[in-house]
Amino acid sequence: MSDAVTESVVEQCSLDWLGGLGYQILSGLTIAPGESAAERSDYKQVFLFDRLQTKLEDLSPKIPLEGLQGALLPKLLSGELRLPAATAAATSSASARALASTAA
After folding, report:
1. How far apart, in whole angstroms, are the C-alpha atoms of residue 10 and residue 5?
2. What is the pTM of this model?
3. Among residues 62, 67, 75, which one has the least CA distance to residue 102?
């Protein structure tokens, strides 16, 4: 028996860990382009934008969608802002006012 760590071992451990944190685990084939439950138009689309948008709206229900899209999404996509920092920014009252004002 080999003790080698392979890509499949790392993947399964990661999926188990994320599932334990409450994340929903789906097969990539289920959400692949062209499938009935597709979540991206092609494999070049790395981010699942609908999921990201839904999560941002859930975290910040008082901030208009335009504010979230205009202020947080570009920073998340560029790597300037990581999700934990975006969550904190979206839920703090000062940041919420600033985001809301960008939509006005």
Report:
1. 7
2. 0.49
3. 67
Written as one letter, the residue type at 54 is T
Domain map (residue ranges) of the chain = 1-41, 47-104
Range among 3-7, 15-19, 78-82, 94-98 rated most confident: 15-19
* Residue 17 parent element (H or E): helix 7-20
Residue pLDDT, tens place only, 16-33: 998 998 888 888 889 899
Mark 12-42 as b/e (b = at least 16 C-beta within 10 Å): eeeeeeeeeeeeeeeeeeeeeeeeeeebeee
